[in-house]
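## retry 2 of 3
previous attempt timed out at serialization; input unchanged, resubmitting
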Amino acid sequence: MSTMHSFLSRFFSSRQQAFGVLFALLSAVGFSAKAIFVKLAYIEPVDAVTLLALRMAFSVPFFVLAMFWGREDGAAMRSHDWLAVLVLGLVGYYLASFLDFLGLQYISAGLERLILFLYPTMVVLISALVFRKRIGRTIWIALLLSYVGIVLVFVHDFSMGSEGLLLGGSLVFASALAYAIYLVGAGHTIARIGAMRFTAYAMTVACLACIVQFLVTHPLTALQQSGRIYGLTIAMALLSTVLPAFALAAAMRRIGSMQTSMIGALGPVATIYLAYVFLGEQLSLIQFLGSVLVLAGVMMISLRKRKA
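## retry succeeded, writing output
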């Protein structure tokens, strides 16, 4: 009997591990594909506000359902929890998404994902400034590697004469910074009400903010887009917003945050490959070296934080 129990425990444990890895991969690739959908949409005359509003409009029903489905889980929501969800949803998902969409008008999908992937380094720097945390030698080396890698990719793109590269890179960098601020501030609320419920509430806030921004700044006739734009935004909502958000939470429940974040490092690699296949973006040796430095630096920081 004990042998059978041990076998079943190992079987279900390995099965949960396998599902966790699968969900983490789905999340990494799904989030990475967003830049591809956006770049494909920009082939047509559509602006960032309209594109973001359509993406969020198609996404919000799923997050509202998740919000009501998980409202009984975790601790009861207090007034400061509601305020935290409102502020962090606006900063971490609405503002970060808006800046990212604006930046993608000027830079490649591969560079966008590399810049966004710097957010763990920003979390370290913000924590050091706000909470007076000391930055050790290993973290400084990791920061140096990451930002030297980004500089290499920038130098390559500048040499290719990319118009608006500095503006686009700055917008995406600001997007990553907004997301890093969100992560620094979200820890206490997530611990109280749970990651899945927090994500549902914060994403609902962000979706509504994007829709309101469109209604204030654009006439309703701006929604008259081609079937191709609607197809891309529906795909972006389902495959690069709803699915990866829930897959990320499912992966973290099964294999933990450390393994999930390590698998998430495949995100920039997936974006570069997808951009090569669907957008025709080329990868030079300098870009490859820069990408490796960024990935190495971020992984050094991620592993160091998990050990701590």
